[in-house]
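Q: What would this chain look like folded?
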Amino acid sequence: MDIGDAGRTQRKLSQVGYYRLSGYWYPCRKPCLDQRGKQVTGHAGRPLRADRFAPGTAFHDVFNLYLFDKRLRLLALDAIERIEVHLRSVIAHEVGFHDPMAYEQDRFIMPRACVDYAHKGKVRNQWREWSERQRTQLNRSREDCIVWHRANSRAIPFWVAVEAWDFGLLSRYFEMLRGKHRQRISNRLGIANSLVLKDWLQQINTLRNRCAHHARVWNQSSSNTLAHLPHPYFNTLTLSDHARGRLFGLIAVIWFLIKQIGPNSQWLDQIAALIDAWPQLPGCDRYAMGFDHGMKTLPREAFAQAGLLLAPQTA
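A: My prediction, written as structure tokens:
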């Protein structure tokens, strides 16, 4: 690896950490080959790497990839925040409409989520565990509206309580809801199959957690490909299984949801501009993000055409 300015390199390693940065230069290391010249794989079929770097590897570019990933996380969090806030509102409206305290009542929850089951020698119950976690978050909340209700010994209605929920709690509640309630919420987001939205929320929550904990996201893969929604938007984008198992697929899904919420959003333009500024490093290409081989940038025209097939949803 070309170290470049040794003083600057030492400072950056001290600021960020050797181990953290090693995840960004790992793809630049030469692959291990057997006697027949075939690539050697290790755990989970991943290629093993030698301790030597491919020609053209420079620390300056590695650090730029680290900064690229940081900006990618910030843009992802910005979009996920919009989805989270909107989903809180929709769930509180669609379920709280029936009863202001619906979030405490299992009659809105699928029966199988309320049944005890054994797991690793312990008795588990999805609804009970969710309720305990929800109460903990509610009790810890310092939101003015929640503090006021507690101080005045008032019951906390759904539309207030939901302000204390994080994305994981929110997506888990949606997952446990009875089908008719899930579908009404899904319809508000232009999704005909609530099971698709359930899958999307699980994977968006995983991305959110990685972003919130400053983990690398640009080349991360999922063991499960995103659920496919038969919709003209996705038909236009023609996402491959490879794309649906990586960040590119999540970008498409997030943009689908954002367009339902705020059709004038410029989020995709920001993502595209960032990808245009891709750092050039051996072994680090856009295919690892879920792009097809040879793609150099986000397909703006395809996304523009797909976006025309979407309409913002109303209550």
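Residues 90 and 185 are 6 Å apart (CA to CA).
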